[in-house]
Amino acid sequence: MAQQATNDGETIDLDTVTVTATRADRPLSDVPQTVRVVERAEIEEQLQLTNSAAAVLAKLIPGYTLPTQTISSASETFRGRDLLVMIDGVPMNTPLRDVSRILPMIDLNTVERIEVVAGASSLYGSGATGGTVNFITRKPTEGKPTVAVNAAIRAFTAKLGESLAPEVSATVSGKATSGVDYLFSGSGTFANKTYDGDGRELPSDGMLGQGGGDRFGRGNFLGKVGYDFDAARRFEVSASWIYMEQDPQWMTLYQAPFARPDIGNAYTGESVLEDTKSVSARYTDTGFALGELSVLAYYNDIKKRFNYSEFDIGYNNTVYYSGNPASPTSPYNQSELYSERAGLNLTIDTPINFIDGAKLTWGSDVVYDRTWQTMTNGEDIFTPLQQTTYAGFAQLQVPIGERLVVRAGVRYEYLDLSVSDYTRPAAFTGGVIPPYGPVAAILPPLNVTGGDYNYSAPTFNIGATFKLTETSEIYGGFSQGFALPDLGAFTRRAGAQTTADALAHSCGLMPYPLPGNVPAGVNPCNRSWTLSYDDLGIEAQIVNNYELGLRYGFGRFRGSLAGFVSTSDQGVNFVAATNSIKQQKEIIYGVEFTGEYAVNDQLTLGTNLGWREGKWDSDGDGDIDYYLPNNRISTPFRGTVYGDYVFKTGTRFRLEGEFWSGRDEYDGTDSNPADGLTIYEIDSGATINAAISQPLGGGTLYVSVDNLLDADYANPTATATRNLPVNGWGRTVTLGFSKTF
User: Fold this and answer.
1) Please, are residues 458 and 412 in contact by the beta-carbon 8 Å criterion?
2) What pLDDT score does 535 carry?
3) 3-class DSSP state of 23
4) Contact (CB, 8 A) for 99 and 21
5) Strands, DSSP E only, in 516-628?
6) What pLDDT, on a 0 to 100 scale, did the predictor assign at position 1?
């Protein structure tokens, strides 16, 4: 909002909030989409409670799901779809193989503000089918070096000594007499054991292959150096490195009533690893002949290693094969993802001189992606992929009179994809087939042939904002997002996508548990099969987003209300029951509300509420007839209510309540649904969090408690990943101190 009220009701002008939702700075009041900006003060307040970017989004952004409380964001969706994550405009996703480990790796100590644009969009490229979030890092300070430090220790009250988790961050910034400015930041975050609300230790891999929230160390490093040639021209280079390693002690037991450490069964795989390096260079010129120029070049080098897991006919029924049916899990049944991405983004913001206030934002993107995934012995587990993206866009914004602003644009995306040939390693799979009972099959190595392919499409957006008052506007519009589905996930499952596939390509069935002597002809497995990438029928996805909203402020109150409908004919769903992926027609709809009221100069009350639901055509007959799986929408309704009170001594107290509904809608993936329910019902729940901070010695001392009442609950998002119950965190306490020198 552009204005804010004082105690006596008089309004004072504030700087207009600008956002980069259109790839160029625009006043928030001109953007016909739901946009939420989280400023540094809110980030610092949340850092007292959590160091998780996903947890902050969940509390402050109505469309985002609850976090998994692990190193993974699996099943964390935005409006039921994918979120494009950027840091200073550099995309951090791995689009050819979406492995959902980005947000938990971000260091909030380096972030100045978070911009979240809801709804499908293609302005920053493919992948933003649900929304876009840009973490904008802190700017260097002027003059002599400034040092900012933040140190904290967190622990679970269930067992303080065994759960101590220290973290520390330090940032140095300034500007030299030569005109060069700089910022260097480093942080270390460590985790020990984690516990649920009943004091039980949580597993290191509750979501089967995704990793947990325990026993890891993470380092984040960021360096930025910039130079202003003059008032208009600037050049800046940036480099970051994220390194995380988790060392599980025990394997995980997934059987009822919930996932837990399999004490005594030692973890035998390699550590879980994150090693992400990114460099970028940006040149801006506000005095460019055609308007304002921005050129961004970047390169990401990413390695991610996931958990080792073993065969279990009830919970992990497909593994890479060891060659021994009596002990079928390969010792290398652990994957490593490698991704390289280089991009060049050109953006020009040109005034249209013959239309007062009109601007045309236009430009082009070229992005190169190379992605491959292997077992820990180096053997490929999906087709190595290379893709070059060429795109051009134009976005026109025209004010009509003093109240109405209209925006419309188009982007054309061309994806040049190269799919390499590969041989899917031999796999071992099991299941229960009535009336035979437990059975198992060996899937021999499968040859998958690739080729060269291209996908292309124009995407459009049109919308408008109408200013009702100086501090309120109504907005609405239509926008489209474009993306390829998770190609690596499709080719990894080649020949084993469905039960029918597995039966067609297996060497035969055998009883399970296996007898001492394997039946003749079943092992060794000498059958040879070949499939083509064409046989998988993968289609590009276009998502249509329709939205109507209201941003408003009067007196001491400000808020927003938005409703949306999101549709796609090529929606992508992971079906946990069959470990398969489907592309089908779908629709998602919802309502979001934010509100904040300054009772007086000391007390502020607020809430963020969101409801969403979705349906899909689960059987491909053209009719949208069942609800989307839980891993797309785990809790239709969720919200946060909070209160902040600032004492005259400077002491600040914050109290939060988080709550969410359950879900028991049938998704069409269970052949024998019981009473029309899902395979696993998601339970409702709630937690309360509190934090208090006190100015001390020129800094801030803070203490916080997360899950104050030590509620024992199932984490809905983690549980929804594979429809296996995973408990949430119990009560944690934090003691910390921050100071700027």
Assistant:
1) yes
2) 82
3) coil
4) no
5) 529-532, 541-554, 557-575, 580-598, 603-616, 626-627
6) 37
**Residue 206 is encoded by which pair of tokens?**
């509750």
DSSP one-letter code for 514: P
Radius of gyration of the chain (CA): 26
Q: What is the pLDDT of residue 491?
A: 84
Q: What pLDDT score was predicted for residue 678?
A: 61
Question: Residue 316 gets which letter from DSSP?
Answer: B
**Which residue numbers in the chain have pLDDT < 50?**
1-15, 515-524
Interacting residues of 150 by C-beta distance below 8 A, sequence separation 6+: 47, 109, 168, 169, 736, 737, 738
- Position 515 scores a pLDDT of 47
Contacts of 511 (CB under 8 A, 6+ apart): 437, 438, 439, 440
Phi, psi angles (nearest 5°) of residue 382: -150, 170
Helix runs in 149-252, H state only: 160-163
Alpha-carbon distance of 308 to 321, in angstroms, equals 13
Sheet architecture: strand order including 90-91: 35-38, 111-118, 131-137, 83-87, 90-91
The 10s digit of each residue's pLDDT in 54-82 is: 999 999 999 999 999 999 999 999 999 99
Of 282, 283, 393, give the one whose Cα is nearest residue 22: 393
Q: φ, ψ for residue 283 (rounded to 5)?
A: -120, 130
Residue 721 and residue 575 in contact, taking contact as beta carbons nearer than 8 Å: no
With 0.85 as the threshold, say if the pTM is over it. yes
Which pLDDT value is given to residue 254?
Answer: 94
From the list 329, 587, 369, 588, the residue with the least C-alpha distance to 486 is: 369
State how far the Cα of 297 lies from the Cα of 341, in Å rounded to an integer.
11
The domain 3-317+335-375+385-419+450-485+539-740: what is its CATH number? 2.40.170.20
Angle of the 40-47 helix axis to the 53-60 helix axis, nearest 10: 120
